[in-house]
Fold these 2 entries.
Entry 1:
Amino acid sequence: MKLATRLCLLIAGLTLTVPGIAAKDPNLKLLKARQGEMQLRAYNVGPLFGMAKGKMEYDAALASKLANNLKTQLSLDIGGAWKKGTDIEAYPGKTTSLGKIWTTYPEISEYGKKYAKAVKELAAEAGNGLDALKPKISAVGKTCKGCHDEFRELN
Amino acid sequence: MIPVLRLLAAVSALIAASSSGVFAQATADVGLLARGEYLLKISGCTHCHTAEGGEPLAGGRALETPFGTFYTPNITAHPTAGIGAWSAEDFRRALHQGLAPDGSDYYPAFPYTSYTLIRADDAFAMHTYLMSLPASTQPNREHELAWFLASRLAATAWKWLFFDAGEIQQSTAQSAQWNRGAYLAEALGHCGECHTPRNLLGALQTDQAYAGNAEGPESELVPNITPHKDTGIGDWSREGLEEFLKFGELPDGDYTSGSMEAVIEGVRHLTPQDRNALIDYLRALPSIDNRVRK
């Protein structure tokens, strides 16, 4: 009986505590939102690089669709998820965003503009053959790296 | 009858050529060219010596460094614009000693600090292949360097301080596979030129070999590729490393970009044996805990 009572108390405690912690820190949802947005970019970019690097066969319709997905994504405004104080120092292990994003703001916006320009050019060319896709996806990748090098913890 | 006679004549000529050594020589040359092509690709020569959208190996790529901007030269077979007038020995001396045919010193933006390790017979194959390619008339562009580096004497002083010439030596304590991997990483691939941090004078910090570099080419972050679990590639699977060297694909499904994307364009040509040797060598490096950050 003693063991059963303790188990019940433990389960009850966990049930109450875990959502309690999450509810106390709404910033965790912000981290997930921006990570989700990045994952969506990666979902679209991955096969485009795969085609450009010869890992998968070039498919004009798919390339065009994915590139246009990226372009559509540009219109999403999730600026609210990039709240000051939600950096790697405050949330180690939960985000790789460096505090520099906020301390040097609006520097990061310039990187965003370069990315948006590269994505629009990619969307215009991705369906026009492998030779058209290659330099455009490479240019997009370069803008991603440029921003990650500055504002994201490596590894 | 005529085609049969022609065939007989051709076979006779082939036998005669073979017995006189001409045929054997031609076969050897084809082998030498193929070897030179392979070495040139995996050594990254094409990447650095080709400007974006420019003629292959005609130079003009800007290498931005903390010391200024270097413009890579034309290394096609053109006799004046390129290196067509160089002998094979001139070429070997450039790789091995960082010396131009006129005896002046090259700046270490040309990675002779690694290429000095290349075997002389491989240097010969690379030169032979280069000379077989189309020549470009594209003129070389002057470097734009800090005032104190404007004279080549700066390169001479740098070499005196930091450069030791000499081909790679086989380690008898290690396997043939490890030795091949070392040759690929240290000499041909010159991986350390970017992945090893440099001191204030631009010399490699060899006690931090392959531990990553916050001041890579074009100000890029260059990751730690030692087998450290948290900050290096210690948690990458062998298959992950293979995929990376073939396609530039990272373990999380993303792809490498920037300078390394261009490097992959070369190393993707590695034979499976060489790729395995390179992976084995990298995985056997001393593990260094170094998180690269600007």
Note: Residues 176-294 of chain B form one domain.
Entry 2:
Amino acid sequence: MNRIFLAILMVCLIAGTAYGWDFEKHSIPVDQILSGGPPKDGIPALLTPRFATPAESGLEPEDRVIGFVSGGDARAYPMRIMSWHELVNDEVNGKPVLVSW
Amino acid sequence: MTFGVSGLLYKSNVLMYDHQTESLWLQVKRRAVTGPLTGTKLKVLPSSVTTWKKWRKRYPETKVLSFDTGYSRNYSRDPYEDYYRKSGGFFSSFFRAGPGEKEKELVAGIEIGDSSKAYPVELLRKKGKLTDNFSGNEVTINFNEETDQLSIKDSDGVEIPNVVVYWFVWKGIHADSSLYKEK
């Protein structure tokens, strides 16, 4: 009985994982794609990031940041924000830049 | 093209998706692995993980991503603090660390052709400079303690993009990868 229940649960989990995604083309075994917990967009990526000056930043000296420079434009992405959003869709010098953590 | 969080994982690795085609992208490989864009790669730009103190000192005019994100979240704490401290990962049970290896050791991973190798970040920090040979490739690694900048170059001085991740995450994707050990 337990085993049947487990099998049904597994089927639900796998079906839930594949739901809504187009896996027709793939280069990894799709049965090894698992749900990490939160649903799609449950962790909201930032699409219109706003920036502050160092004085306004509210950061502590030992806070960790991801640093990126392009053509004299330096940007810091605090880990305290990256951990909540994972992805920042930014634009630097007219070019799209994805910051991912 | 813009990206969002799919909520899905492959061997402990985050899968992102693009809003335009809903292809899934494997973060550690920067490559689409399912959907219409399967096989497409993103270009890696050099970045560093450092402290606010060091970054600000080097780039006093830097812009800083604002806590005013449009979302209400408790930015005063990092939600993964406990995860950093724990020794295992969410899905690390299939991984067995080799002798003298720690599964959650941070490594800088590189790929040359079909070969890959990982270098413990703490060791690089300690040594500052390191040269290594693997699969016939000579690589030179520099770690700048003042800026936390990590640079890996081939014998022609060309930068090899590196990814800093936990060892078990890297090994999950690069099964053949070895971990650099001091001789």
Note: The mean pLDDT of chain A is 86.
